[in-house]
Structure formats: C-alpha cells, structure tokens
C-alpha cells in the first residue's frame, strides 16, 4: 500500500517537468513575433482591393487597371529611376486585359521584377506598407503647401515698396504703408527730437 503513493509522486515529478518548462517560456520561443508569409500576402491582397476601388465607385475590388496599379506603385515608391511607367505598361499589356485579377497581378509583379532585376519580395514589401490610397500624396501636398505659404508670407524677405508696408515685427502698417501721407508738423524728415523742446526748457 505504501508503494502506490511513491509511484504517484514519481509520476507527478515527471509530469510537472514539461509544465515548468512551458511556464518559463522555453517551450515556445517567440513564435508570434515572426511574421509569416501568409500575413504579408494578406496585406498585399488588402491593398490590392483598396487600390482597385480607388477612383472607381463601381469596382468590387477584384480587378485592377494599369492606371490604378501605377498610382499604387508610385505611392509605394516602386516606380523610380529603375522601374518606370513605361515598364509597367509593357508588362501589364502582356496579360492582354485592361483589368486583371489578384492572381494575374502576381504574375505581372514576378515578370516585372525578373525583367528589371529587382527582388520580388522588395516590391511586395513596398506595396504592402504604402498605406491607404492617396494618404502619402495628400500629406506631402499639404506639407508643401504649408511650406510655400510660410515662404511667401515671410515679410522679412519682402523688397522694394512691399517692404515699406510692414513694420519690423511683420505687422501691416495699413494705409500708411500704401500712401505717402504728408507730415504737417513742421519738422523736417528724419528729425528724432520731435516734441522734446517743451520737456527740456
């Protein structure tokens, strides 16, 4: 009767060893942290849907045109000095269709990457991480507009008659900055001790 608990204790020790290892985290070394190829493909597929609907309210997101593809590639930075819109047009026409599906689009990317000597994974990575359609271009445009407005409204850079319309702080002088108002005080121009006679005598 006394041997049975000893066996149970021995069994418990054997059983608890893997549980302790699992609780320490040694059983599964950071598997969720590494992205799987399926996740990357899913991102590209989602982007494909978004850009295939961009500019076409009737699109169901299953077919993409050359112009939509070019917009996507420009936003992602795929189209540059090495890959141009001429290249994308030539390879897109090989599919012999004005609109292509996601499967055919993958063939288009493979053909383009092979011909231009670019890694396919690099192209897909850029396409997957470029954001929603129009987001980057809108941000860049607004930033450029703000920069232009700031440059054109900087009164310290004004010259000629325009410079006379503002004071040192950049505040407009109003009509005094636009017209020569005659000074009827009797003092000559540039005299700095105006109205000081009564104070000193």
Based on the model shown, name its key terms.
Recoverin, domain 1; Tubulin polymerization-promoting protein homolog; two-stranded antiparallel ribbon; 9 helices; tubulin binding; mainly alpha; 201 residues
General description of the model:
Helix content is 54%, strand content 2%. It has 201 residues and is mostly helical. The chain has a domain of 71 residues: Orthogonal Bundle (Recoverin, domain 1). A two-stranded antiparallel ribbon has the order 1-2. Helix 4 crosses helix 5. It is rod-shaped and about 95 Å long.
How is the secondary structure organized here?
Layout lengths: L2 H21 L13 H17 L10 E2 H11 L8 H9 L5 E2 L1 H15 L3 H9 L6 H18 L7 H4 L33 H4 L1
Helix pairs in contact: 2-6, 4-5
InterPro entries: EF-hand-dom_pair (IPR011992), TPP/p25 (IPR008907)
Protein name: Tubulin polymerization-promoting protein homolog
GO molecular function: tubulin binding
C-alpha-based Rg, rounded = 36 Å
Could you report the average pLDDT, rounded to the nearest whole number?
75
Q: What sequence of helices (H) and strands (E) makes up the elements?
A: HHEHHEHHHHH
By DSSP (H or I, 4+ residues per run), the number of helices equals 9
SS-based structural class?
A: mainly alpha
**Which percent range describes the beta-strand content?**
under 5%
Secondary-structure arrangement, i.e. CATH architecture of the domain at 60-130: Orthogonal Bundle
Distance between the ends: 127 Å
Helix content: 40-55%
> Judging from the principal axes of the Cα atoms, what is the shape?
rod-shaped
Order of strands, widest sheet: 1-2
CATH class of the domain at 60-130: Mainly Alpha
Number of strands: 2
According to CATH, the homologous superfamily of the domain at 60-130 is EF-hand
Largest sheet: 2 strands, antiparallel
Reported by name, the CATH topology of the domain at 60-130 is Recoverin, domain 1
Low-confidence stretches: 16-23, 25-42
